[in-house]
Amino acid sequence: AQKITQTQPGMFVQEKEAVTLDCTYDTSDPSYGLFWYKQPSSGEMIFLIYQGSYDQQNATEGRYSLNFQKARKSANLVISASQLGDSAMYFCAMREYSGNTPLVFGKGTRLSVIA
Amino acid sequence: NAGVMQNPRHLVRRRGQEARLRCSPMKGHSHVYWYRQLPEEGLKFMVYLQKENIIDESGMPKERFSAEFPKEGPSILRIQQVVRGDSAAYFCASSQPGLAPLEQYFGPGTRLTVT
């Protein structure tokens, strides 16, 4: 069974600093995808970044990068040069590809960026 | 190209009433997923539908909840005889048919409040 663990309920970061949000996962499927979503206070789910289990390189999207360590089953999100607008809930999610399986989400990390 | 549409955005129902939540997927998407988010929690999968078919309803409560995705029109999540515990945000996501990875695009959600 799939499982996602986010161990940090809340994080604080100074504006312009980098921050790492932790995510570990558990699956027996060799083929899977890892996703990060941002949920601001307005409530919508915003897709940030994707990493496939067979991707050789870590995914990057602008200020977001995913530190993928397959052997440790971790997929940490790194946000560089934090901005006040980055304050939000961040969810890690996984999807196995043996069949059309849904996304499984972690409980989330609330990031607060301090000026 | 419009994104995933959900309506209403906010819905208030008294205990015992019915709630109908609508989701129109992105153009060209024929896969729809419904997720529920309780306060301070991550999203939990409820049901996965394709046009006129329920593919996976393993996350749906056994009673009072039903979902459909007709040949024409939006997908509907129906909750009969609502109770206070049904108060949550309900998100719909859609994806294209085809091989993985299949990124899911989320709608803005419907916030259901049961009084």
Description of the molecule:
The complex is a heterodimer of chains A (115) and B (115). Chain A is mainly β. Chain A has no helices and twelve strands. Helix content of chain A is 0%, strand content 52%. In chain A, strand 7 (60-61) and strand 8 form a beta hairpin. The radius of gyration of chain A is 14 Å and the shape is globular. Chain A starts with a strand and ends with a strand. The mean pLDDT of chain A is 93. Helix content of chain B is 0%, strand content 49%. In chain B, strands 2, 4, 5, 6, 9, 10 and 11 form a seven-stranded mixed beta sheet that branches. Chain B has a four-stranded antiparallel beta sheet with strand order 1-3-8-7, with no helix packed on it. By secondary structure, chain B is mainly beta. Chains A and B meet through strand 5, strand 6, strand 10 and strand 11 of A and strand 4, strand 5, strand 9 and strand 10 of B.
SSE inventory with pairings:
The complex is a heterodimer of chains A (about 120) and B (about 120).
Chain A: E1 3-5, E2 10-14, E3 19-21, E4 24-26, E5 32-39, E6 46-52, E7 60-61, E8 64-69, E9 74-79, E10 88-96, E11 104-105, E12 109-114
Parallel strand pairs in A: 2-12
Antiparallel strand pairs in A: 1-4, 3-9, 5-6, 5-10, 7-8, 8-9, 10-11, 10-12
Chain B: E1 5-7, E2 10-13, E3 19-24, E4 31-37, E5 43-50, E6 53-56, E7 65-68, E8 75-79, E9 88-95, E10 105-106, E11 110-114
Parallel strand pairs in B: 2-11
Antiparallel strand pairs in B: 1-3, 3-8, 4-5, 4-9, 5-6, 7-8, 9-10, 9-11
